[in-house]
Automatic annotation (TrEMBL):
GO biological process: methylamine metabolic process
Renumbered residue ranges of the record's region Disordered: 1-23
The protein, known as: Putative membrane protein YphA (DoxX/SURF4 family)
Organism: Nocardiopsis composta
Annotated membrane topology: Multi-pass membrane protein
Keywords for this protein: Membrane, Transmembrane, Transmembrane helix
Superkingdom: Bacteria
Gene Ontology, cellular component aspect: membrane
Record has Transmembrane helix as a keyword: yes
Domain Methylamine utilisation protein MauE: 31-161
Keyword DNA-binding in record: no
Residues annotated as transmembrane: 32-50, 75-95, 102-120
């Protein structure tokens, strides 16, 4: 009896009846999807950190949110670009990929919460995500766009966190996420 005689059986390679076909396609694509997400996040974080230099610009951006006392604003303003550079480097080389993705996701949640807080309190500020932040004229804010952008970055970080396996990573050379 061949597979054409029984309508419930499918021929090998027949994707209509092969339940593993979509899974095997994802298994083949996933490392490359993660690589793209990893490198994109590294570029985004690296650029964001670079645009916050000198640190006086970063401190000014943090102060605009009017959430913390001056010493805390200074600490955050100084350490934020360093954290972004460190995460960018880890993501770029693929070292501790899952943890770097999780830390980036957490950072995006904090950024989103800060922007929502500024919006809810009626502040007219630039988020300072890429360069100088601070007061802007009423109507010049872009909170919705900033939040949507950061949700997109959060999705990229989620991909890296959930599926850390990718080519061209130090994790892979170390025998992790094969």
């Amino acid at each position: 009896m061949d597979s054409t005689d029984n309508p419930t059986e499918t021929a090998p390679g027949d994707s209509a009846g092969d339940a593993t076909a979509p899974r095997s396609r994802w298994a083949a694509a996933q490392p490359w999807v993660t690589l793209v997400a990893r490198v994109a996040l590294a570029g985004i974080l690296g650029f964001a950190a670079y645009t916050k230099l000198p640190v006086a610009l970063s401190i000014q951006s943090v102060e605009a949110y009017d959430l913390f006392p001056d010493p805390v604003n200074e600490f955050i303003g100084i350490t934020l670009p360093l954290l972004e550079f460190a995460l960018a480097l880890l993501l770029l080389v693929g070292l501790a990929t899952r943890y770097a993705g999780a830390a980036t996701a957490l950072l995006m949640v904090v950024f989103i919460a800060g922007i929502v807080s500024a919006w809810a309190r009626g502040l007219n500020i630039d988020c300072g995500c890429f360069g100088t932040g601070g007061p802007v004229a009423p109507g010049e804010t872009a909170y919705g766009v900033d939040i949507a952008r950061d949700i997109g970055f959060l999705a990229l970080a989620g991909i890296v966190m959930v599926w850390p396996r990718s080519p061209l990573s130090l994790d892979r050379f170390a025998g992790l996420y094969r």
